[in-house]
Amino acid sequence: MDIVSLTIAWVVTSVSFFIISKLPIGVDIDSFGKAMVSAAVFGLLNALVRPLFVVLFGPFVLVTFGLFMIVINAAIFGLAAWLVEGFRLRWGIWSAMLGAITLGFINSLLYEVLRTLPSFR
Fold first, then answer.
1. Distance CA 69, CA 9 (A)
2. For residues 48-75, b (16+ Cβ closer than 10 Å) or e, as one string?
3. pLDDT digits (tens, 9 = 90+) for 30-53
4. Paired sense of beta strands 87-89 and 27-29, if any
5. How many Å apart are CA 37 and CA 87, to the nearest integer?
C-alpha cells in the first residue's frame, strides 16, 4: 500500500468515525481531530492485533461462518476507544458492536462515492 492510498484510507476512516459520533448509537468523539487520532489507532490495531485475534479465535470464526469477525471488530473498536482520550463508548460492548458495524457500512459508502469521482477510477 503506497502513502497516497494509506492517507486516503485514514481520511475516509476519520470521516466515518466523525459521522458515527453524530449518530445515536452510543459512540462519542469530542472533535474531528480526535476522530483522526481514533482512526489512526484503529488502523494500527487492525494491522497489529487483528491477525492475532483471528488466529486465536479462528475456530469460532469458522463455526459461525465468519460472523464472529463482528465480535473481533467490536473488540478492536473498544480497544481503540480505551486507548484514545476523547473517544468514549456510552453503552460498552453494545456501542462497540454498533460502532464497528456502522463503521463498515459508512466506510463502504464513502469508498463507493470516491470510486464515482473521475480522479479515483
1. 20
2. eeeeebeeebeeebeeeeeebbebbbbb
3. 999 999 999 999 999 999 999 999
4. antiparallel
5. 9
Please name every residue paired with 103 in a beta bridge, in sequence order, or none if there are none. Answer: none
Cell numbers standing for residue 73: 471488530
Residue 115 backbone class (left: φ over 0; alpha: ψ -120 to 50; beta: rest):
alpha
| Residues in Cβ contact with 80 at an 8 Å cutoff, skipping those fewer than 6 apart | 38, 41, 42, 45, 87
Q: What is the domain range of residue 85?
A: 3-120
| Model pTM score | 0.93
- In the structure grid, which three cell numbers stand for residue 7, read together? 492517507
Beta bridge partners of 28: 88
- Report how many domains make up the chain: 1
